[in-house]
Amino acid sequence: MTPLFVPGPVDVDEEVLMAQTQPMIPHRSAEFEEIFHRTEGKARKLFFTDTRVFLSASSGTGFHEAAVRNLVSGKILSCANGAFGKRWYDVAVTNGKQVDLLETDWQEPITPDLAADALKGKGYDILTIVHNETSTGLMNPIKEIAAAVKDVSPDTLVCVDAVSSFSGAEMKMDDWGLDLVLTSSQKCLALPPGLSLCGVNDKAMARAEKVEHRGWYFDFIRLEKHRTTNSTPATPALSLINALDVQLDRIFAEGIENRFARHSAMAERCQTWAVENGLDLFAPEGYRSQTVTTIENTRGIDVGELNAFLIERGMRIAGGYGKLKERTFRIAHMGELTVEDVNALLSAMEDFLKQ
Ligand code: PLP
Hints:
Layout: E1 4-5, H1 14-19, H2 30-47, E2 53-56, H3 61-70, E3 75-80, H4 83-94, E4 98-103, H5 112-119, E5 126-130, E6 132-133, E7 138-139, H6 142-152, E8 157-161, H7 173-176, E9 180-184, E10 196-200, H8 202-210, H9 220-227, H10 238-254, H11 256-276, E11 280-281, E12 292-296, H12 303-312, E13 316-319, E14 328-332, H13 339-354
Parallel strand pairs: 1-13, 3-4, 3-5, 5-8, 8-9
Antiparallel strand pairs: 2-10, 6-7, 9-10, 11-12, 12-14, 13-14
The site of pyridoxal-5'-phosphate has 12 residues, from loops.
């Protein structure tokens, strides 16, 4: 495997890759229903929900759109402290929704107090927020924010983008009172891109029943009708669902808590290394990501040259994202990677810096 220290697509295990080579079967068949039933059940376990998980042949952004179309007839509060929070806001705006933006400096978390102040007395239908901002390497305190929302505005549904944290950092949908959690296949789940997963609870489903013009492809009510008969409204991404089936078994064999701990150990190693090597971390202490470390390029490293050096050694990191392109670079540590892989990367980076 060539370690890819980029925030998706990431390396995929051989067994999981091979699962995609299974022959096609008709999706309207008892064989597919069995695969769907088994896989959706396992996915619910990983979402820590007893409710439901929709599987879609799209990337995660599809469910950004689904959330605003299914759950909103009034207003949205869209939290953004990075490029992907901003994207969800843009998705809401381009769907013609009424949306207020709660934006902080990108080096600051969205705190429960900020969210509570913005929500009070406003009657928002949903709050959208990114758990792990892949652009900044900052993790928002979702559990505490969800508790604050329930306190000040219990009818506001909490919708969480867990695209770059899901299965790499703790997220307990039912216990934390999250109404919608979405993710993509190509990050910590370590699957090829093209599949997205979305947990939607009963409260959100009851809301969707009352919302008009939910569209077709991502209509939660239509998806649910099919889910309960172990099917999908349109043709599913069969090969990716086969891969997910196998990968979920591998994840449970590792142990979910062990998986979180492995990601946390890799993050710790990268963060310590950056500081020891005279570099600053973009995200503030206490809010640093477990799955991607965003480093301020305080040493003026030529990231293009660094990556060329790493690629010769079979590794690759990521540059800064969007407006942080020049200012930062990113080491993603998600999916199948281990602390040993991270050590090999950091040692190669030290060799480059010595040059
Ligand atoms: N949200 C976050 C936090 C992301 O990191 C990304 C992609 O990197 C997205 C959303 C978009 O996901 P996708 O490319 O699967 O649509």
